[in-house]
Design a protein that fits this description.
Helices cover 52% and strands 7% of the residues. The protein is mainly alpha-helical. It has a three-stranded antiparallel β-sheet with strand order 1-3-2. It has a two-stranded antiparallel ribbon with strand order 4-5. α1 (7-22) packs across α3 and α6 (110-116) packs across α7. The chain is globular and about 65 Å long.
Length: 218
């Protein structure tokens, strides 16, 4: 199948995959939950502000390509949505973790992918990330490719091809050490925000359990 997703469809698909793996207890997602997932500030590049109509349109486009749609048999009055990548591609867990990170954060090095996929799949070695990338690149049609290494960088970045082929300007560019430091700082902040959000969810669950326990004795 030939893939040519819009930027919004890419973000919606990546968000569905991420929540399926990291918070299965809240998956499939309602339209509102999916919109919040698309617009969250951590683990997203670029950060977006998608409205309900944009997310609906993206879901419609993904459904036409059999990549996502309404979840069947959900015990809820609210329509919930799920991705259908396993039905189409039958990915392994390493493959789908790497692909999800590429969909949500754009081009990345294998080292970056290893760090950013930890909640979805723990790669024991960098070679395991390379192996998952190779499998994505060897599919027909290819679902990922390696980009030309930029001047001043040690590793080449990889990119998904769900939005079509990617052409990169190979013109040499100067790399600012200050920009590198800012990027590293931003990454640390994003990881901390994600950890705080997870802790808040855990605290909320503990409070709910405590309240239910108290009501047994009222």
């Amino acid at each position: 199948m030939e893939l040519s997703l819009t930027e919004t469809e890419v973000r919606v698909l990546g968000s569905l995959i991420e929540k399926d793996i990291t918070t299965p207890e809240y998956y499939p997602l309602s339209l509102n939950a999916l919109m919040n997932a698309c617009n969250q500030k951590s683990n997203r590049d670029p950060v977006m502000q998608l409205g309900e109509e944009a997310v609906r349109n993206a879901l419609s486009g993904l459904q036409e390509q059999r990549l996502a749609g309404p979840a069947g048999g959900a015990d809820s009055r609210v329509t919930k949505y799920e991705h259908r990548l396993q039905e189409v591609f039958n990915f392994t867990r390493p493959e789908i973790a790497v692909l999800c990170a590429l969909l949500l954060r754009g081009p990345q090095t294998p080292g970056e992918l290893r760090g950013r996929t930890e909640r979805m799949h723990r790669f024991e070695a960098l070679d395991d990330v390379h192996s998952a990338l190779q499998k994505l690149m060897q599919r027909e049609p290819p679902l990922a490719k390696v980009l030309p290494r930029q001047p001043g960088t040690k590793e080449s970045r990889h990119v998904h091809l769900f939005a079509g082929d990617v052409v990169v300007d190979a013109t040499p560019q100067s790399v600012s050490p200050a920009a590198d430091r800012c990027s590293a700082d931003a990454e640390r902040v994003a990881r901390l925000e994600e950890e705080v959000a997870a802790l808040r969810r855990e605290v909320g669950e503990i409070k709910d359990q405590l309240n239910r326990f108290r009501k047994q004795f009222e």
